[in-house]
Amino acid sequence: MDFLKKVLRMFTQGRGVPIRGFLSSFFQTTEEDYTEAEYVEIDIERNTEAVAPTLRDARTGAVIVNEEVWQENKYRPPYSAMKDPINLHELMERQPGESDDADAVGTWFGRLVRKITRILTKYHRMFARNIELQCAQALQTGKISLTDDKNGVTYELDYQQSPTHLPTVLTSWGAANATPVADITALCDVIAEDGEADPQIAVFGARAWQNILADESFKEMIKRDGLGLGALNPGLRDKGARYMGYADFGSHRLELWVYSSKYKTLSGATKYDYLDPDKVIITTSLEDLDLRVVFGGVPTLGMKAPFTDVVPPVVTYDGFIRVHNRVFEDEQQDTYTAESKMRALAILVSIDRVGCLTTKTA
Fold this sequence. Notes:
This protein has about 350 residues and is of the alpha+beta class.
């Protein structure tokens, strides 16, 4: 069991530990969000500005109010699984990182455990990027669209985000007569009104940031008021984005971030931006947001000897992802297969408190 704890530390504390992406840092996972269910039920919050009515006569009793401010929904988290067979004959050869010294090589079983650990840790990092992509899609479009290993769409979900929270500018930023400051201010006003909370964070795609820096009205605003450095939000620190300071847009003071991280699909070499370079995501503070990553049940036959005390069947990265591991054998092929599974879904609970501005016209 001590060895199992050592291997578990390799997953959760080693150099290959999955790093939470910047946009997935806006989402939280509580203990109740780790489930064993096929479907997860969660309420999407819609804010209302209705004022409580007064009674003409207290003896008439309370007024019945049926307006729904919550949309009860049932979601099926997408299913991800990866595996890699290891032929026992491969373990007779020197492995990466080993010296040729016989004493340093160790047994074939030790080599097998190290190789399995490397494989599963790689899968865990890939799962983390899957979640970052979900969060990026949900924040930018109000939808999620995931693909298989052949780039075919296998999972789609639409949270029915209000079109007013996903506006496109009338004039592309960088063009004559563009109005970046007014465009951001207008979206902030919509989020403040619908979400009943102050927008406080703006995340720029790389090109959107360059275009607003070149805008005369923005430069005048910065010249007049300065670009304050402020204090970095600790929840967003060191997550892959650059903090540029803060500025006031109308009555809204926004932290300004630039995010340009990329990812690749499993079958391609092309790199894609998590955040469209021409988009700007705007949200309220992390404290006012309720965005979740929830986990569904994963069917598995479980871990069998001799790996039950060697490879942890479940690894949970605190407040982040939960993955299920399995190692099984094929006696005829002389192989052991390392397998990892996850079922995670990013959900916009406080959907009225996020928005995304497209800064380039079609």
